[in-house]
Design brief:
Layout (H helix, E strand, L loop, with lengths): L12 H5 L4 E4 L4 E4 L6 H9 L1 E3 L5 E3 L9 E2 L5 H10 L1 E6 L2 H14 L4 H10 L1 H7 L5 H11 L2 H9 L16 H5 L8 E4 L3 H12 L7 H7 L5 H8 L4 H10 L1 H7 L5 H4 L6
Parallel strand pairs: 2-6, 6-7
Antiparallel strand pairs: 1-2, 1-5, 3-4
Helix pairs in contact: 8-13
């Protein structure tokens, strides 16, 4: 984009619909772009605990859902422009290698019940149907889902023709795409790798009510270990790692991330 490009000068129905990852807190005049697998759930739960007291000031309530989160995509063009011009905004990012591995483990390896299985069926519908040529389709489908490998996953999200490049599938899209980094001037960019310190800084910078919940932050800050990273990326050949790197090169450059050392050892001249 041109250096003078601003999203608020290019608002239309399609652009506004794509702002469905940006949480708006009108009472605080604050916006937060929620990127999956970057500590996003901590902030969503925090914002859901805010309410107005009798004086109209925002305070935090310890338990219960007391306020509904609104997204920037739910406002009209004039309202969106006003918020982009006048509200503070922030995001949290994460190394793409860690973030996408976290997405794979969460969606394909952790047993989280029926909802995640349905999501996998939706995402891999055409892929599964091609393998289900005969027999009990349900049984074959479940077997195929359980058998999806990390290399298959990497191939699917790395190739330019796959559907994730044309959808709003937040788990696989680049961080810069989800949050319109070229069109929104964010006031604060925190990193998952320093989640505790950066969260405290965000609290202070934006005057957020309450205090940082240390125990919740400790849970969010548990990053993927080098052992886990090595286990999965050792299954890939150099070409697959290269394709993945190209797919998320914008996120690497924009946020200053490097290819982890435990992944670099599997790269050779291609």
């Amino acid at each position: 984009m041109r250096p003078d490009y601003h999203l608020y000068n290019h608002l239309g129905a399609k652009v506004i619909a794509s702002l469905n990852h940006i949480i708006v807190l009108d009472d605080l005049k604050l916006m937060f772009c929620c990127i999956p697998h970057t500590g996003c759930n901590y902030w969503k739960h925090l914002f859901q605990s805010y309410r107005l007291d009798e004086r109209g000031d925002v305070e935090r309530q310890a338990t219960g859902r007391v306020s509904d989160i609104r997204l920037l995509s739910q406002y009209g063009i004039g309202e969106v422009k006003q918020r982009l011009l006048n509200y503070s905004s922030f995001i949290f990012t994460r190394n793409p290698f860690h973030r996408l591995l976290s997405a794979f483990i969460t969606s394909f390896r952790l047993d989280r019940g029926g909802d995640d299985k349905e999501e996998v069926r939706r995402i891999y519908k055409s892929k599964i149907e091609r393998k289900s040529e005969s027999g009990d389709r349900a049984a074959i489908t479940n077997k195929t889902l359980d058998a999806i490998s990390f290399p298959e996953f990497i191939d699917f999200i790395s190739q330019s023709h796959n559907k994730f490049h044309k959808s709003d599938e937040a788990n696989w899209l680049g961080m810069y795409q989800l949050c319109h980094l070229c069109g929104i001037d964010y006031d604060f960019v925190g990193k998952y790798e320093t989640f505790a310190d950066d969260s405290k800084e965000a609290f202070e910078k934006f005057g957020l009510p309450g205090v940082v919940n240390e125990s919740e932050i400790e849970r969010e800050e548990e990053d993927i270990s080098d052992v886990t990273l090595r286990h999965y990326f050792s299954q890939l050949n150099p070409y697959q790692i290269g394709d993945f790197t190209k797919r998320f090169v914008a996120d690497k450059i924009l946020f200053g991330y490097m290819t982890p050392d435990v992944v670099m050892q599997y790269l050779t001249d291609i």
